Amino acid sequence: ATRITREATEAEAATLASNSAPANTARTTLTVSVGDGASGNATDGHFDLGPAIENGTLVARVKDDRTQPAQWVDPSSLTFALGDAARITAPADLGFVATPGSSVWLIPSTQIAGVPWLGLNSQREEIVTGTTGPVQFTLDAVEGPGRVAVFNAGALGSGVGEHVFDGPGTGYTLGANTHAHQNWVFTAPGTYTLTITMRVTPNGAALAGSGFGSGGDLTATGATGPNGRPMVSQVVGRTASGKECDLSLATTGADTIPLTVVSLTWALTGAACVWVGAIGRRRNLCKAL
Questions:
Q1: Do the Cβ atoms of 221 and 214 come closer than 8 Å?
Q2: d(Cα 237, Cα 76) in Å, to the nearest integer?
Q3: pLDDT in tens, the chain (289 residues)
Q4: What's the pTM value of the predicted model, to 2 decimals?
Q5: What are phi and psi of 2, to 5 degrees?
Q6: Cα dihedral value 19, 139, 3, 24, nearest 10
Q7: Is residue 208 within 8 Å of residue 53, measured between CB atoms?
Q8: DSSP state letters, 131-155
Q9: How far apart are CA 2 and CA 289, in angstroms?
């Protein structure tokens, strides 16, 4: 299966318009490919997920630092790939989330080569100047073949510190004008989708929300297409010839794991790094391949 981004049709745009997003709130979905066969267009380098304001609407964006100047892009345009460089062997201390001795895949709080370094960010200029207080991040849903644990490193640079996401419905408060990196653990190979909402408090008038509209399997990204209709993301399958087609099989859900403060024996070097600074497609029925 593949996640694509395209402009909604007129009928889809009407459906999306009927599903209003909460003010001052943006929702998005991160896609992570894990394992030996991991593939994606974000395999290395520095990335931050955070809110932005575009035309009076709060939208989710990822800061992509692989080029200079950095680009703030739609999260649906990226698939983060965690291959062999991200794989570690789970010690006994990780028994609460993985079988000891099994392979798990880690985005650590410090950067390593060959692993996309994903963090959270509240430092867009219009967020710093146009909102007050922290950004509230909420994990709405997780789908994938295994479990996901997200946490800050402990005070001495190892173990599990402050919990970030313990499961759907749990949240994390990121301070104003802050850039931070956490540890993201995935327990099985395959493709994961993490649906995340961020909320801000504007200084003035309320901001329009984005990302909540849904037309079947569509999710609005917050961007507008060349014909004035909303851009949407959608998971599609592939026929044997490689053409896009509708998925007829449901996705498999997976829980995230509650975290316990334990001492890890594997290297989580450095506490969570924090910086504070100034300012008309054909549709065919198919099975997931």
A1: no
A2: 16
A3: 577 889 989 888 777 665 568 999 999 999 999 999 999 999 999 999 999 999 999 999 999 999 999 999 999 999 999 999 999 988 776 677 778 899 999 999 999 999 999 999 999 999 999 999 999 999 999 999 999 888 888 766 667 778 788 778 889 999 999 999 998 999 999 999 999 999 999 999 999 999 875 545 677 777 788 998 888 878 776 555 555 565 443 333 444 444 333 334 444 444 444 444 433 333 333 433 3
A4: 0.72
A5: -135, 140
A6: 40
A7: no
A8: B-S-EEEEEEEEESSS-EEEEEEPT
A9: 10
CB neighbour burial string for 175-190, b if at least 16 within 10 angstroms, e if fewer: ebbbbbbbbbbbbbbb
HSE at residue 136, side-chain half, CA atoms within 13 A, is 13
Q: 67: which residues sit within 8 A by CB, 6+ positions away?
A: none
In a 13 Å sphere around the CA of 256, the CA atoms on its Cβ side amount to 26
Residue 53's SS3 state is strand
Asked if 24 contacts 202 with a C-beta cutoff of 8 angstroms, the reply is yes
